[in-house]
Design goal:
The complex is a heterodimer of chains A (about 350) and B (about 230). Chain A is α+β, with helices and mostly antiparallel strands. Chain A is built from eight helices and ten strands. Classes of the chains: A alpha+beta (about 350), B mainly alpha (about 230).
Chain lengths: ~350, ~230
């Protein structure tokens, strides 16, 4: 190539010009590397969070990296119009919106026993007539243990099983909780929480705050929860079997659809919207926006929820994210988990494969 | 024979606007995928409308280019460099059009609503399919890397033309040259010093030791007559 360079290229005194060109090109490349986190291995990225989830639970090809064990449900939401004054979202106008949902338990192991955690989760995708969607992932506890993605990452690190025992190191957990006093409300809840015998009797909380946007543009910070009509087994002791939640759900749905009420809690000025560890005072006004009716369940391997990423930032006009720092982190991390499991589904080179060893 | 000596104003405006948008998009894309902070959300909300804007601008630009062919490269440019220039330009066009379309198809395949704003939604252009999503998503990333490398090569080559060869290729995208039309009396060239001062490159290296004697750059180009983007005096 050097011989190919024309006379002006070989002109003496060009050294600084070549240097300048190389410097400009290198600067752009390096800045991009910095933005991508490749030059800062300590910075928390979505990929590093998912890697940690995999270190804790193992890698199960095709499954979500968290809340891996779950089941698809479908039905609809009947809005009564009461939230319409606060949000212009179509889902809150009187009428029916189809829903595809998923019940699950936390953790990255799709074969974990149902009683391994006292938490259940409900994820929903509402598809409005105008094609916009509302996706939400809720958990059956009223507060989240931590307020930031960095603290959640530290929690995952503390919970990573010790290779010697196969269990988390109690000293590390103790150190984590000591360093994170914001976990106190969650721990108070967890100290009495028992694994429920049914998905149907749980209340599911948005945990993160959002904003409702009224037709006139008025903003109202809210949190929501799904409160069950079924309460019969709320105090029931979970069976000893590893898998009972799906069977319970199937039996209940064979009898009748299951219903929850969507309750929207309106924040007062000053209520924390950026801290999911702190519940709002109990006297905040609550709106019953309508009824969620679930009438069908399918296994997650073949059901319609399988290919849905329940990204909490997929929101229709009329619902916006708050300043809660967990929300963008959830969105970014879910997206990476979704890419990994769909890549495994596609059998792309370099992706994890289902093998008999990790299948159970 | 293409006698244009510089890009049309429309082509130049489109070029620099899209250069800024595409470079911004590379940073936005890389940043939003890695970030777990609030940046993830607002970069993502910026990424989609900008991508569609680039798609529209790329279509307009392709039409402008087909209608107004760009000035020829300097006749003395080595064949390899000419080939590299042409290939990289068409690669840039392909990527400018493909990247937004792949992004749009990828979101469609993933079952996501393609929201350009809080309320503006584009229809899906691909059926929901997780395997297609994974392939398109990886393609989007690999093409972004290819676009970055092509962009860096393009920028490096432009600076090479402007700083090393000083053959008028860079300035043909920066300002309008006064070109003589065949059969017409040659226009009086603008004051040379004024033209030189208008470019970001120094006029010459006369003040530096070891450089060739101060000559107008254009005069050093051996074939400033036929096919040169620069007017002969």
């Amino acid at each position: 190539m050097q011989a190919e360079l024309s006379a002006p290229a070989r002109r003496p005194g060009n050294a600084w010009r070549w240097t300048l060109i190389a410097a400009v090109v290198a600067l752009v490349a390096a800045t991009l590397g910095y933005v991508g986190g490749w030059l800062t291995p300590q910075r928390l990225t979505a990929q590093r969070m998912v890697n940690q989830l995999q270190r804790n639970a193992g890698t199960f090809a095709g499954y979500r990296r968290n809340h891996a064990k779950g089941v698809c449900v479908s039905g609809h939401f009947d809005s009564n119009g009461q939230a319409q004054a606060y949000s212009q979202a179509q889902v809150f106008a009187p009428g029916r919106t189809p829903v595809v949902g998923r019940f699950a338990i936390p953790g990255g192991n799709p074969y974990a026993p149902d009683s391994s955690v006292p938490i259940r989760s409900m994820a929903l995708r509402f598809t409005q007539v105008n094609g916009q969607q509302w996706r939400t992932g809720m958990n059956s506890m009223p507060v989240f243990p931590v307020a930031t993605p960095q603290a959640f990452y530290a929690q995952l690190q503390a919970q990573q099983p010790d290779p010697a025992t196969g269990k988390p190191d109690p000293a590390k957990l103790k150190a984590f909780f000591a360093a994170h006093p914001e976990t106190a409300p969650f721990r108070a809840w967890a100290s009495t929480a028992k694994p429920s015998a049914s998905f149907a009797t749980e209340t599911y909380y948005s945990l993160d705050a959002f904003e409702l946007i009224a037709a006139g543009g008025k903003r109202q910070p809210v949190r929501w929860r799904m409160v069950p009509e079924a309460t019969d087994a709320a105090g029931a002791v979970a069976p000893a079997a590893p898998d009972y939640l799906d069977a319970d759900l199937g039996q209940r749905l064979a009898r009748a659809p299951l219903r929850w009420h969507l309750l929207l809690t309106l924040a007062a000025p000053g209520d924390p919207t950026a801290d999911a560890t702190r519940a709002w005072p109990a006297d905040r006004p609550t709106i019953d926006a309508g009824t969620l009716v679930l009438d069908r369940t399918e296994p997650q391997q073949s059901g319609p929820c399988r290919d849905i990423n329940y990204d909490p930032l997929v929101l229709p006009a009329g619902i916006k994210a708050s300043d809660d720092p967990l929300l963008p982190a959830r969105s970014a991390v879910y997206a990476d988990s979704y890419l990994r499991r769909t890549s495994e589904e596609a059998h792309l080179p370099g992706t994890a494969r289902s093998t008999p060893e990790n299948a159970r | 024979m293409n006698t244009a000596t510089s890009f049309t104003l429309t082509a130049r405006v489109l070029h620099w606007l899209m250069a800024a948008l595409i470079l911004a998009m590379l940073f936005i894309g890389v940043g939003m995928v890695a970030s777990v902070s609030a940046r993830h959300d607002w970069l993502l909300r910026l990424h989609k409308p900008l991508g569609i804007a680039i798609l529209i601008l790329a279509v307009v630009r392709l039409a402008v280019r087909l209608r107004h062919p760009p000035p020829a490269l300097p006749a003395d440019l080595p064949a390899m460099q000419k080939l590299a220039a042409h290939a990289s330009h068409w690669l840039l066009y392909v990527l400018m059009l493909a990247m937004p379309l792949i992004g749009w198809a990828m979101l469609s395949a993933g079952g996501y609503p393609v929201m350009l704003s809080g309320s503006l939604r584009l229809p899906p252009i691909f059926p929901t399919n997780p395997v297609a999503y994974a392939i398109l998503r990886h393609l989007h990333g690999w093409f972004a890397l290819l676009l970055l490398l092509t962009f860096l090569a393009h920028m490096g080559a432009a600076l090479y033309h402007g700083l090393i060869r000083r053959d008028g290729v860079l300035s043909s995208m920066i300002r309008r040259h006064v070109a003589p039309l065949p059969g017409e009396p040659e226009p009086i060239p603008r004051d040379k010093a004024a033209i030189e001062n208008a470019t970001p490159t120094p006029p010459n290296d006369a003040a530096e030791p070891g450089t060739v004697p101060a000559e107008p750059d254009e005069a050093t180009a051996p074939s400033a007559s036929v096919g040169s983007p620069l007017p002969t005096i």
